[in-house]
Specification:
This protein is an all-alpha fold. The chain has one domain. Helices cover about 80% and strands about 0% of the residues. Helix 2 runs parallel beside helix 6 and helix 8 packs antiparallel against helix 9. The chain starts with a helix and ends with a helix.
Length: about 250
C-alpha cells in the first residue's frame, strides 16, 4: 500500500484516504446509531467512543494473534479448525477490550449496558476490518479515484448487511451472557458460554461466505443464519431492557 502511494500527489493521497476511511467507518457507525436509539439510559459519549476504540484495538490484536495461531493450517483441508480458531480469537478479543476498558467504569451499572458496550466494541472491530478489506480487495492504483470509490462502495454495502451485522450480532450474544454473569455473579461461567456461542455463529458465517460460489444456496443459508441470530438478539436485548428498567425503578 505504501509503495502504491509513491507517485501520487498529496491531493490524491488525501482524497483516497478520506474516501476509504469514510467507506470503512460509515457502515458500522450507522448500525451503532440504530442500536443506540433503543438505549433507555444513553451512555456517555466518551464511554461509547472508548468502547469503539477498544474494538479497533481488538481488531489489530486479533489480526496478529490469528497469524500466529493459524500458521501452517491449511484452510482448505482443516477448515473446521481454521474457521473456529479465527472466530474464537476475534470474539475473545472483543470481549477483552470491554473487560479491560469498560467493566469497572461507574457508567457500567445496568444489565443492558453489557450489550450496548459489546456491540459498540464489535462495530469498532468491524470498522478496522473494513479498512483492511478495502485496501486488500478493492484498492487499485491503476484505476481512477472514482472507479476505486465505486468498487469500495460496493464492498462496503455488502459488508454492511453481512460482516458488519455479523460482528454486531456476535458481540451482542457475548453481551447478553456478560450481563447475566456480571449482575448475577454466581453465573460467572456464562461469559465463556457466550463467547463460544458467538464464535460458532461467526465461524458458520465465515464458512458460508467462503463457499458461497460452490455451495448451492449458501447466500440463502447466510441470510437465514443472520436472521435467526437477529431475532434471538432482539429477544435478549428486550429482556435486558426490561430488567434495566425494573432495576432503575427499584433504585428510585
Amino acid at each position: 500500500m505504501i509503495w502504491n502511494l509513491v507517485g501520487m500527489d498529496l491531493a490524491q493521497i488525501i482524497s483516497s484516504g478520506t474516501i476509504y476511511f469514510a467507506l470503512a467507518f460509515i457502515p458500522p457507525i450507522l448500525w451503532l446509531l440504530i442500536y443506540l436509539r433503543e438505549d433507555l439510559h444513553p451512555e456517555p459519549f466518551r464511554m461509547i467512543l472508548l468502547a469503539f476504540a477498544g474494538g479497533i484495538a481488538a481488531g489489530i490484536a486479533a489480526l496478529i494473534a490469528e497469524r500466529g495461531v493459524t500458521w501452517g493450517i491449511d484452510a482448505d483441508k482443516q477448515f473446521i479448525i481454521f474457521f473456529a480458531a479465527i472466530a474464537l480469537i476475534e470474539e475473545y478479543a472483543k470481549y477483552l477490550s470491554v473487560k479491560f476498558l469498560i467493566l469497572n467504569q461507574p457508567d457500567f451499572n445496568e444489565p443492558m449496558d453489557a450489550m450496548i458496550y459489546m456491540v459498540t466494541a464489535g462495530l469498532g472491530f468491524a470498522a478496522i476490518e473494513n479498512i483492511l478489506f478495502l485496501l486488500a480487495q478493492v484498492y487499485d492504483p491503476n484505476l481512477l479515484l472514482g472507479e476505486n470509490m465505486i468498487a469500495g462502495a460496493q464492498l462496503s454495502a455488502a459488508r454492511f448487511v453481512g460482516a458488519n451485522l455479523l460482528h454486531a450480532l456476535a458481540s451482542a450474544v457475548v453481551g447478553y451472557f456478560l450481563a447475566r454473569a456480571w449482575f448475577r455473579p454466581r453465573r460467572h461461567h456464562w461469559v465463556a458460554l457466550g463467547i463460544l456461542l458467538a464464535a460458532l455463529l461467526h465461524a458458520g458465517f465465515n464458512y458460508l461466505i467462503i463457499v458461497k460460489d460452490i455451495l448451492p444456496g449458501a447466500i440463502a443459508y447466510t441470510a437465514g443464519l443472520l436472521a435467526i441470530a437477529l431475532v434471538v438478539v432482539l429477544i435478549d436485548f428486550h429482556k435486558l431492557k426490561r430488567e434495566s428498567s425494573e432495576l432503575s425503578y427499584a433504585q428510585r
